[in-house]
Each structure stands twice: as structure tokens, then as C-alpha cells.
Amino acid sequence: MLKVALIGSTGAVGQEFVVALDKHPWFNLTHIVSSERSAGKKYVDAIRDPQSGILKWHNREQIPEYVRDKTISKFDDINPKDFDLIFTALESDDAQIIEPKLAAHVPVISTAAAFRYENDVPILIPGINDDHTDLLKKQQEERQWKGFIAPMPNCTTTGLAITLKPLIDSFGVKSVFMTSMQALSGAGRSPGVIALDILDNVIPYIPKEEEKVQIETKKILGKYDNESKEISVNDVKVSCTCTRVPVSDGHTEVVFVETIENADPSSVKKKMMEFSDNVSIKRLPTAPREYIVVNDDPTRPQPRVDREINDGMTTVVGRLRKDSVFDNGIKYVLLTHNEKMGSAKGAVLLAELFKTKKII
């Protein structure tokens, strides 16, 4: 068992981490860390509203027993050298300061955007760009760290990159147009009047989201050069519009793809299923039984019906059909669970990949 800590344990993403690490066969979460306001409290008390006494627990699963009475530590009270790995669920401004202090001593897997766009930092999705892990050695050498920072992609990027990978490998891709319909949980959990903004509404702008998706997709799907120790970003053109909709969990995306070689819906489905069947991470503890599911029902995917398939780790594709604008065009709808595969549980899967590669 590897000894791990979690920084940022009481928020929505932190709660997903404590669920994902419950009874994990490889990782033992020994320390949970949060703000000074929560430090010294039992976990179950730290997530309780001090005025109403109501638990601010946002997960569908119950609070795991192993963490309920665990005492929350302050950041300054832990020694990074005591751990084999640290997960962080921080806002980007805090991550910018805290994560390098940790990475100087120990590997860090982060859900924040703070370091995603650095040249020596890969953005990793297990099974999609596993060879990019070699860039972590360069990061350690250049920064003189014993550890490293390995950030997860933006949750909206995750499903898009997963579904584009088999298309790029089989047909080549010139351009991608995507419109997202993103769940409320991706914006954090806001109680009360703020949440009224989304009722009977669609918000057609999410700050910085489109830029993140466009940059990250090209980097994730780029090639790693062993000689230069650099990622050359994919030259695919990516354009997107990101919107917020009144759905609790699960990001839906409508995707239009211009391929280099002709691709009909049946051949695309075949390649997606072959990729899913042969993905490199199938034997990892958190890996889904199906990495991609392609549904022939024209009413699917739907967040309420499909987001929990394989405990939220499967990307579901539907409405796969020929596009009439591009000469070589395919269009489809995808659904990915933004708080599981797109966040904490995807980070645990990445840690499992690191362990099998002997990176941790």
C-alpha cells in the first residue's frame, strides 16, 4: 500500500476523492488536509454547515466510514516527504503556490489548471497519451524536484479527447467543432439564491472554458518526441462553445469532426469499440469495463441515464452519423461524468497508471 495525502478535502472534488479512495487496494489515504478553518475538526464536522448543522455532502454515496472521524490537518502540519503521492483538489491560485512546495519532495496529481500549459508538464488521460509520462522526468531534472506535478485536464476536455483519439489514429482529423452542455457541479456547489440563475435557463458563457478545451485537446493528442523531450501539439483545429445547463452531473457535448480520410458512421463505431476493447489501462483497479460505449439508440446519451455507467468512468457516445457540411465529416454526441472520469476518480486512475509504470 502506498501512503497518500489529499489537499483540499472538503470541497466537491475533495469529496469525490475520499469516495474514490475508499477501500482502494493500492492507496492508503492517511492524511486529509484543508483550510485552517477546518483543521483540527473531524471530517464529518468540517463539512457541516455551522449555522444549520446540515451536512454539505454532495456525493450520491454516503460518507465513507474510514474518513468520517479522521481529523483534518493543516498544510503546515504535514511533511510531504512522509508520502508516496499527494492528490490536490485546489483552486488554481492556491495550486500555483502550494503544488511546487509539494512537488519538490513528492509526486503530485492535481485537478487544477495552474501548471497544465507549462512546456515540461504533460496533461494526462490514462489510456490516451500514456507515453507523455516520460516528460515528467524532464520536469524533475529541470526544476530539480524529487517529485513532479501531473495535472488532470479540464473536465470538458476529457470526453472530447477520449473520443477523438481513435478517430485520429484511424482516419486523421483536420478540424473539430464542439458545443458543450455542462453540468452545474462543474461550477462548484453554490447554495441558495445563486443557484436560481440556472433555473429555466441556459448560460452561454463559461469563463476561460473554451480556451482551455482548445489548448488542452491539441496538447493531449500531440506526439511526444523522445529526443527533444517535448510534446509537439496536434495540428487539429479545435473550436468550441461551452454552455452551462440545469443538469446536476455529467457533461454532454455535441461534436462535429472533419476527418482526413473518409469515415462512415459504421467504421467510426468499429474503431471506437476496438479502441475501447484494447485500451492499455483495462486491468487497473479503477478502470471501467468499457472505456467508450457507442449507443445506437438515437435518444442517448442522457446525463440522468448514462452518467453512472461503470461508476462514471465510461464515456458514452450516441447519435453517431454522417455530417453534410464537410466532405469527410462525422458528428456525434458524447457524455462524460465531470466529477468522476473528468476529475477525482480519473486522477486515481492516473495514479494507478503511475504505479504500474513504476513512476511512483
Automatic annotation (TrEMBL):
Which keywords accompany this UniProt record?
Amino-acid biosynthesis, Diaminopimelate biosynthesis, Lysine biosynthesis, Methionine biosynthesis, NADP, Oxidoreductase, Threonine biosynthesis
Q: What is its EC number?
A: 1.2.1.11
**What pathway is this protein a component of?**
Amino-acid biosynthesis; L-methionine biosynthesis via de novo pathway; L-homoserine from L-aspartate: step 2/3; Amino-acid biosynthesis; L-threonine biosynthesis; L-threonine from L-aspartate: step 2/5
InterPro entries this protein is in?
ASADH-related, Asp-semialdehyde_DH_CS, Asp_semi-ald_DH_pep-lack, NAD(P)-bd_dom_sf, Semialdehyde_DH_NAD-bd, Semialdhyde_DH_dimer_dom
Query: What Gene Ontology terms for biological process does this UniProt record contain?
Result: diaminopimelate biosynthetic process; lysine biosynthetic process via diaminopimelate; methionine biosynthetic process; threonine biosynthetic process
Kindly identify the residues recorded as the active site: C155 (acyl-thioester intermediate), H251 (proton acceptor)
Task: Return one GO MF term.
Answer: protein dimerization activity
SUPFAM superfamilies linked: Glyceraldehyde-3-phosphate dehydrogenase-like, C-terminal domain (SSF55347), NAD(P)-binding Rossmann-fold domains (SSF51735)
Top enzyme class = oxidoreductase
Positions of the Semialdehyde dehydrogenase NAD-binding domain = 3-136
Q: Which family does it belong to?
A: Belongs to the aspartate-semialdehyde dehydrogenase family.
Q: What is this protein called?
A: aspartate-semialdehyde dehydrogenase
Its taxonomic placement starts with: Archaea, Nitrososphaerota, Nitrososphaeria, Nitrososphaerales, Nitrososphaeraceae
